[in-house]
Design goal:
Blueprint (H helix, E strand, L loop, with lengths): L1 E2 L13 H11 L3 E4 L8 H6 L6 E11 L5 E7 L6 H12 L1 H14 L6 H7 L8 H10 L6 H9 L14 H10 L3 E5 L14 H8 L3 E5 L5 H14 L2 E4 L19 H8 L11
Parallel strand pairs: 1-2, 2-3, 5-6, 6-7
Antiparallel strand pairs: 3-4, 4-5
Helix pairs in contact: 5-6, 6-7
Length: about 280
């Protein structure tokens, strides 16, 4: 099984990189993508958990904004982790997350919610890239909501009055940086209607021109009809299709390998990288 989109405590997951690899092994995953938000900090620890039965695809999920303000997530896979340009982009994105979190907390406080920035830090693992899931966990800890999913559904979704955007590269800029670092670019859950904002089909032409390699089609936040449309777009534009769990550990419903990538699609995607960077024993 091939699961190319998962998260660890290096961003907003609840499993350490080591524990995540072990869980993937127990689930029967043979090729695992480590794609923390705007960070490669979990790579080294994940490698220490390697066994002959599993290979690692190292990458990151890069936070982007279109020119009209729609949030887009771009999976960068198989890029050179020592590339200075991509590490600078990831660092810049992480640096904008704290001011954004301060604003979101202030908006919640203004409406009477008993939540503080310190609560968010307490809910986040050490050295994690702070994001909305940690705010959600803080709201759960304060018993304002019952679950992380409830926090997103009621308070933290993209159309919420408490949602704040942050400075981020455009999808085209992110793709260009991934490609410059020798990697491949796959747009994550682009029709995720359950998240409140979706992309229009005509945007994909521009992304292909920028170098897009694939579309994450099979994802729990996209219904069957949306997945079919994305499959057709990928076919017309000669893009690879992937499937993945977007696993975060406890607090989200996503199960490891609940959606997977077909081996032939994975082979086509890996072939687009500038070098064979899959990590294996």
């Amino acid at each position: 099984m091939i699961d190319l989109h998962t998260h660890t405590t290096a961003s907003d997951g609840t499993d350490s990189p080591f524990a995540l690899v072990k869980k993937a092994l127990a689930t029967g995953v043979t090729i695992l993508g480590i794609t923390d938000h705007d960070s490669t900090a979990g790579w080294a620890e994940a490698i220490t958990a390697l066994q002959p039965q599993i290979q690692l695809v190292l990458g990151a999920e890069i936070s982007c904004l279109t020119t009209d303000g729609i949030s887009v997530h771009m999976l960068g896979l198989l890029f050179d982790g020592e590339d200075g340009q991509i590490q600078q982009m990831l660092s810049d994105s992480r640096d904008t997350r704290l001011p954004r979190m301060r604003k979101m907390v202030a908006l919640l406080q203004a409406d009477g919610f008993d939540i503080s920035l310190e609560d968010v830090y307490q809910a986040a693992p050490d050295q994690a890239t702070i994001g909305r899931p940690h705010l959600a966990d803080a709201l759960v800890a304060k018993k304002i909501v019952a679950t992380r999913d409830e926090a997103f559904a009621d308070l933290l979704h993209n159309e919420s009055k408490y949602y704040v955007t942050h400075a981020a590269p455009t999808p085209a800029d992110a793709i260009a940086t991934i490609k410059s670092a020798g990697g491949v670019a796959v747009i994550a859950h682009p029709f995720a209607s359950r998240r409140g904002q979706i992309l229009t089909a005509d945007l994909f032409q521009d992304l292909v021109a920028a170098g897009l390699d694939g579309i994450e089609v099979h994802h729990r936040d996209q219904n069957a009809a949306e997945q079919q449309v994305l499959t057709e777009i990928a076919r017309e534009l000669h893009l690879v299709t992937t499937g993945a769990s977007d696993y975060h550990g406890t607090g989200k419903l996503n199960s490891m390998a609940e959606n997977t990538t077909h081996p032939a699609q994975w082979e086509a995607l890996e072939a687009r990288a500038s070098a064979r960077r899959v990590v294996k024993l």
